[in-house]
Amino acid sequence: MITIIDYNAGNIKSVQRACAEVGVQAIVTSDPTTVTSAEKIIFPGVGAAPSAMAYLEKKGLGVALTKAFEARIPILGICLGAQIILDSSEEGNQKCLGLVPGKTVRFRIRNKLLKIPHMGWNEVKVVQPHPLLDGIQPGDEFYFVHSFYPQPADKKDVYAVSSHGGDFCAALGSRNLFAMQFHPEKSGRLGLQILERFARWDGTLTG
Amino acid sequence: MLSKRLVVCLDVRGGKLAKSIKFVDTKDIGDPIAKARQYYEDGVDELVFYDITASRENRDIMINFVEEVARQIFIPFSVGGGIRSVEDATRLRNAGAEKVNVNTAAVKRKELISEIARAIGSQSTILSMDIRRVEPTQEMPSGYEMVVNGGVTPTGIDGLWWAKTGEELGAGELVINSIDADGTKDGYELNLTRMIADSVGIPVIASGGAGKPEHLYDVLTEGHADAALVASIVHYGEYTCRSLKEHLHNRGIKVRLNY
């Protein structure tokens, strides 16, 4: 059973439906105790960091997520959920959860042909093996929609990159936490496979 | 680098798939959800569902339809037709549509674009434009005119001006549909597509006129489009999504082939 955190940031249902498609039961909650007692957690989200953080703090969900991380519960962050696990975000100069050292930064692109938001299908290159990225081949593409991206302080936390006017971090991880800037729930079969692997993942780098 | 996108448009009437030719003659051609699932498995990058009835009575049918699509399709899809308010847009978004398309209602009241963009984000707000060629005049210097109500009512509004205005108001993407090319299968209107793509900083989806794979190649290169929209050439089985993408790939266009 997967617990999806609903914190008023975008369409949670699409993640739940994608879980159903791969035969995984998922519940949606904004209750902190449900989060800390979860078997597995998906932390999705679309939108702006400041309003998301305000809501997480108001509901006690930020604290709950930090506890879950410390308790080694497997956590999967998606999009905004891959950004606010870092120390801070340039979006509104927002202090974030600090589960992984680093910050979320804005695309700075001078080439007029490259548009922001970075929206559409782009190749994801695995730079370090991870159980959730098993089977991803060169040329495999995933769906992105974002203007900011996560930038872990330590390169060892970067597991995959994509490129938009230069390489940026597309997936990061630390222990039982793994997070991706792209949307596995909108990336067809290859995205669904990541969710399937997460449902089986024990939260370690070997499992 | 982002891939160029293949977009398939499905006209929906009361939950059925219809295909219009020059926007007038429509007939039902099957179950849109089954078709959508087929295209999804065949590698389409994005789908557009257009409610051609666009009536208020049909709203709830459309919401249920979108929810069902969202249970079957795990790539982005947008919905258009008859969206007149922030509430319409938000309901469709919450039902599972990644983006919504506004058209006629935005021409009638342009603030609608900024209101929807504020509510669901620019990235989810598509401005669809039906455009026809006209003699350039002082009012319409680009030589293209906006046409509304499913492509039947001329507005006197310059097409290029409207595209730029839409971007300023917060649209995150434009669908440029040429009324002249629609249904002809003679190719997209390259001049129109390029003129708009070169004048805005948001992605442009070219629509109207696709008859063969070469046309997609032309509009993605010469036409400067970010995405090519097709309908009848895949609905009637002349081409598959795979074959269209392979054609583009073989000619050096970056498209998504692993799926």
List the helices and strands and how they pair.
The complex is a heterodimer of chains A (207) and B (259).
Chain A: E1 2-5, H1 13-21, E2 26-29, H2 32-36, E3 40-43, H3 49-59, H4 61-70, E4 75-78, H5 80-83, E5 88-89, E6 94-95, E7 102-106, E8 118-123, E9 125-126, E10 141-146, E11 148-152, E12 158-163, E13 167-174, E14 177-180, H6 188-200
Parallel strand pairs in A: 1-2, 1-3, 3-4, 4-14, 5-7
Antiparallel strand pairs in A: 5-6, 7-11, 8-10, 9-12, 12-13, 13-14
Chain B: E1 5-13, E2 16-21, E3 25-30, H1 32-41, E4 46-51, H2 59-72, E5 77-80, H3 86-95, E6 99-102, H4 104-108, H5 111-120, E7 125-133, E8 144-148, E9 153-158, H6 159-169, E10 173-178, H7 190-197, E11 204-207, H8 213-221, E12 227-230, H9 232-235, H10 241-250
Parallel strand pairs in B: 1-4, 1-12, 4-5, 5-6, 6-7, 7-10, 10-11, 11-12
Antiparallel strand pairs in B: 1-2, 2-3, 7-8, 8-9
| Relative helix content of chain B | 25-40%
CATH superfamily of chain B: Aldolase class I
Named at the architecture level, the CATH assignment of chain B is Alpha-Beta Barrel
Report the β-strand fraction of chain B as a percent range: 25-35%
The overall number of domains of chain A is 1
- In terms of DSSP E residues, the strand content of chain A is 25-35%
Oligomeric state of the chains present here = heterodimer
Question: Can you characterise this structure?
Answer:
The complex is a heterodimer of chains A (207) and B (259). By secondary structure, chain A is α/β, with parallel strands linked by helices. Chain A has one domain: Rossmann fold, CATH 3.40.50. Chain A is built from 6 helices and 14 strands. Chain A has helices spanning 13-21, 32-36, 49-59, 61-70, 80-83, 188-200; strands spanning 2-5, 26-29, 40-43, 75-78, 88-89, 94-95, 102-106, 118-123, 125-126, 141-146, 148-152, 158-163, 167-174, 177-180. In chain A, a hairpin with a 2-residue loop joins strand 13 and strand 14 (177-180). Chain B has 259 residues and is of the alpha/beta class. In chain B, 35% of the residues lie in helices and 27% in strands. Chain B has helices spanning 32-41, 59-72, 86-95, 104-108, 111-120, 159-169, 190-197, 213-221, 232-235, 241-250; strands at residues 5-13, 16-21, 25-30, 46-51, 77-80, 99-102, 125-133, 144-148, 153-158, 173-178, 204-207, 227-230. In chain B, helix 2 (59-72) packs parallel to helix 3, helix 3 runs parallel beside helix 5 (111-120) and helix 8 packs across helix 10 (241-250). Chain B is globular and about 45 Å long. Chain A binds chain B through residues 11, 13-14, 17-18, 20-21, 46-47, 112, 115, 117-123, 137, 139-141, 143, 145, 163-164, 185-192, and chain B through 1-3, 5, 40, 45, 70-71, 74-76, 93-94, 96, 98, 121-123, 172-173, 201-203, 226, 256-259.
